[in-house]
Design brief:
Layout lengths: L7 H13 L8 E5 L4 H16 L3 E8 L6 H15 L4 E5 L8 H19 L4 E3 L4 H14 L3 H4 L5 E2 L2 E2 L7 H10 L16 H17 L3 H30 E5 L2 E5 H5 L3 H14 L9 H12 L7 E3 L3 E6 L2 E6 L4
Bound molecules: adenosine-5'-triphosphate (ATP).
């Protein structure tokens, strides 16, 4: 009799995890970050299966945000499932969520801080996150709606520092089926159904309409867009860095001087990135520097009519002096 292989969805998740761990050295510890939802539960189960076969150690971290009644008990249940799966260590990280930046951002900040602390303490080689292709599609749509550039359209990276996202090419439906096939009962976070959150509205209302009107495969196409946009953004970043080095006549703490004739040779996309890069080098806080600021500085290069200095965040100003553009703490002497 032919041996019965795993369910196709289970096999898909295991393959994705195996590929994501291919470069990790033997005996290293890999941790699954698991909320108990279908995506990260399927991820944890796949890690438990795959890691020992690759000579790796596998553990699990679950964060109790203490934001909902019963969250501590649920976190304990996730840790218990982890132990049954053979994941060790299986830790509950209890955090206190602040308020800065709104509830979602504050919870994310507390979660990543706890994951990073545990990963350092346990000397883990990698922490796996359960984001799927659908999460990626939602991220791209949210970026599009904000009117963002290619970097933002490139969504989430498959690998960023210690974090890896093995499921980024798999649909959420695969993780749901993988859990069912293994008898794992995921926890459905009520926040995932709460239509007050923009991301939930994108998931529940926007993507289904796009699929219905444009045909199936929209999520896949958006995830593909993210991959291509990431390559483009990486290339533009490299080009910008080279161009910056070429344009910068001086770059000394808090003051950057750029050569206007060199800036004029650059295509808009690169020149504006160079200007942004220069403003940050001069001390502008990147979060506060908007496209409008950069465009105003750009006009000192491309639409020069003797304008006055442009004010930038961080007490900076940009001023044109003959063939140079100076970005420095104002007032410029
Ligand atoms: N409480 C948590 N503890 C540990 N890891 C978490 C927690 N919440 C989220 N994560 C990690 O971040 C990933 C993305 O989280 P997000 O909140 O966007 O999705 P989710 O609906 O919780 O996903 P899942 O279906 O895996 O639970 C999860 O797949 C998981 O790896």
């Amino acid at each position: 009799m032919a041996p019965v292989g795993p369910h196709p969805a289970v096999a898909d998740v295991r393959r994705a995890v195996r590929e994501a761990l291919a470069d990790i050295r033997r005996d290293a510890l890999v941790l699954a970050a698991c909320s108990g939802g279908a995506d990260s539960l399927a991820l944890a189960a796949a890690l438990a299966f795959v890691a020992p076969r690759m000579g790796l150690r596998a553990g699990l971290l679950t964060v109790d945000h203490q934001l909902q009644p019963g969250s501590a008990e649920r976190a304990r249940q996730v840790a218990a499932i982890a132990k049954q799966l053979g994941l060790h260590p299986a830790e509950v990280l209890t955090v206190t969520v602040g308020t800065a930046g709104g509830p979602e951002a504050a919870a994310r900040e507390a979660r990543y801080a706890a994951l990073a602390e545990a990963a350092d303490r346990l000397q883990a080689a990698a922490v796996l996150l359960g984001h799927t292709r659908d999460d990626q599609a939602e991220t791209v749509l949210l970026g599009l709606a904000r009117g963002s550039g290619v970097r933002s359209l490139s969504g989430m990276a498959a690998e960023a520092g210690r974090y890896r996202r093995p499921l980024l090419d798999l649909p959420r439906s695969t993780t749901v089926r993988a859990c069912r096939a293994q008898g794992l009962t995921p926890w459905d976070d009520p926040h995932n159904e709460d239509l007050r959150y923009t991301r939930v509205r994108v998931r529940r209302n926007v993507l289904p309409v796009l699929e219905q009107e444009l045909g199936p495969g929209v999520a896949e196409a958006l995830a593909r867009t993210a991959r291509m946009a990431r390559e483009d953004a990486d290339a533009l970043d490299q080009w910008t860095e080279k161009a910056y080095q070429n344009c910068a006549l001086s770059d000394i703490g808090g003051s950057v001087t750029l050569a206007v004739p060199e800036l004029e040779k650059l295509p808009d996309a690169v020149r504006r990135r160079v200007l942004r890069r220069a403003a940050i080098a001069a001390g502008a806080p990147s979060g506060a520097l908007s496209a409008t600021h950069v465009l105003a500085v750009d006009r000192l290069v491309t639409r020069w009519r003797g304008q006055k200095a442009v004010d930038l965040p961080g007490g900076l100003s940009a001023v044109r002096r003959y063939g140079t553009l100076i970005l420095a703490i104002s007032p410029i002497a």
